[in-house]
Amino acid sequence: MSNPEDEPNHERLQAYLLALSDALRSLHDPVAIQETAQRLLAEWLDADRVAYAEDVGDGVHVQVTRDWTRGLPSLAGRFRYADYGEELTEALRSGHSLVRSDIASDPGMSLEEKQAHQVLGLGATLNVPLARNGAPIAILAVHFTAAHSFTAEEVAMAEATAERTWAAVERAQAEAALRQNEEKYRELFNSMDQGYCIIQVLYEGRQAVDWRFLEVNPAFERHNGLHDAAGKTMRELEPGIERKWIDTYAHVAETGESLRFEEGSDALGHRIFDLYAFRIGRPHERKVAVLFQDVTQSRQAEAALRASEERFRQFAGASSDVLWIRQVDTLALEFISQASQSVFGISPEAALADAEALLRTIVPEDRADVSLNLEAVRAGKAVVHEYRILRPTDHAIRWIRSTGFPIFDAEGWVDRVAGISTDITDVRQATDRQGVLLSELQHRVRNVMAVIRGIAARSADTAGTVENYASLLSGRLTTLARVQSVLTRNPDSGASLRTLIEEEVVAQAPQQDRFELLGDDIGLPPKATEVLALAIHELVTNAVKYGAFSGDTGFVSVEWQTAPRDGAEWLLLDWIERSGEAVTPPGRRGFGSELIESRIPYELSGIGRLEFLPSGLHCRLEFPLVNRPSIFQTNAPRPPAEDHAGKESKGGGLAHKRILVVDDDYYAAAEVVSAVTRIGAHPLDPCENAEEAHRALRHNPDAVVLDLNLGGDGPDFGLARTLRASGIPFVFLTGYDQAMLPPDLAATPCLQKPADPQAVIAALLDLLSPATPSPSKNHRRPR
């Protein structure tokens, strides 16, 4: 039912409002404000009960916190909106008062709804809601035990009472909330007297342009700052008053619709007002009564409280860490953030309902330590500790770092214990992964430096001048850098054969019509990319200096195909030069020749041949397209370096000793072989992998120089343990540090690439010196 349409008796209404204002003026307690307002309204309406209820925030229930009755039992308690009719629910949500004059005979109510009212002894009700942003926050209910015909005056009284009561309660509650942690006994904020005025809307033609203050009460100026307003127009007092005020009062004056609203005004000192405006007198007089109060401070207090609560809510809700607060005496949870679901596998609701829920997730071995730390926080100490939990949602073991700290009251006693719990499992794993990545970087750099060292040394062997040496080294390192760029972008995929050849040839060929590439494009494995790029570079460089590209008519044809052989797919590549002139074989074996004829067989298990024909150079390359790791890729975990600086060796103790070098890097192996050869040792043929090395052991080496990552899949200690069991002394030469060695091999000498040949020789001397026997020589096998 809607409100009665008869006009209220404004004199009686005004008298009531004055009485209500007088009654509430000296009150500071929200409970006293509500009780006084309820009693006064009940007395003026001769009602049987006036109740005040608050919405509990779940959209379902309302809580009657207190009521005034004329000898009836109190209805304090929780009630469901739905039990008292959909019409009531909609009215409350929309903010409109709902009158039910005769519940027993109300055709709009169901039998169940009537019975719900009958249980409470209700014959007629008037419910005045207070809403904010479309949501009910409180209700003032007027009850009669028998049917009662409500007048507009009674409805207006109830509505004004609800508004004033709520404003007073809001003010008191907001002020109390902001000072919650101050002195135990303090005085409530003084209630604010409302301003009251009667105005007349002024028109020019049919357009409202201003209003005149006919009457104002003593509190008027205190609320809006307008001095000596009676008899003056608003624009005389404040020319900059906003247009919205004129439109609002004109609407009330013209339509007779009473408005209860809250509005701010920048022109009046940025104040916020809570107002109730209603028309008085004859309609053509355009008079409006305005009951208002300055609620700026209370709104600011509310805004500050809401902002603080919202900041904490957003912080707690957005945090991936668990924020929690416990009672100091019982350790019962008072608050826990949403992250408890993802971190502990327990919802906030379940954790709040069961104080032991989180503690039960801690693995038994760590519970005692967690309890000790909680006790330390209860004693006033801040602690940081780590423990493990078994998360019930996925049965995963997770590591938790918890920072616990006390919250003190005003007197310095521990009032609450709080904390922040972080799942550090991923951090621990990330730290481990970071170590692996750093190890990969270290191992990769060391391998690359070893190759660069080998290239630099071989380039020096054939360079006649410094300028020639710089040119040779620059070209070879540029090619190596290009290969590195390709392989590090995607270490496992290698490169396109056609692109690799084309980039090298195009960069140096005199004209683009002086060469041809014949063959379907194929993908090269990483190791093949690394070696073949250098080989093609050497062939192109040789063609520019001495071959087909050195004259005006020479031509280069690069042809390739694949064919199955020995259970693998092999690449068969021919580099054919037609220079028109006879080619003279070089007087000595240079870098390119060694690369093609030695490194390809060593590192790619293939064949490399050079033929110097009358028509020009013919190079034939054959190797299996198997996935061998490049120096630019590694799965190695990492270690720190060992310094061999200062070790000196003359090498005499290695004369005639058989030294076996096991390394999948041709240049690293060749450098060691060259070094031990120069001091009179007898190196065996170097081995690229463990299988070849096992076969080479039948030649009874006196010592072994051993790389660890022979297969590219990380360190393999199988061959090292075989050597130790056989009594053959050995030294590691690798990109790893000694820290990577397992305990049973921890005493083995370990040199990091690129190692100075003198350091290798010094290590071999230490191994073979009778004065300082190596642990690996204790079981020297007889020959």
Automatic annotation (TrEMBL):
Entry keyword set: ATP-binding, Chromophore, Flavoprotein, FMN, Kinase, Nucleotide-binding, Phosphoprotein, Photoreceptor protein, Receptor, Repeat, Sensory transduction, Transferase, Virulence
List the catalytic activities from the record.
Answer: ATP + protein L-histidine = ADP + protein N-phospho-L-histidine
- Return any one Pfam family short name: PAS_8
Question: In which organism is this protein found?
Answer: Devosia oryzisoli
Protein name per Swiss-Prot or TrEMBL: Blue-light-activated histidine kinase
Single GO MF descriptor: ATP binding
Q: At what positions is 4-aspartylphosphate found?
A: D707
Record-linked SUPFAM superfamilies: CheY-like, GAF domain-like, PYP-like sensor domain (PAS domain)
Q: Which residues form the Response regulatory domain?
A: 658-768
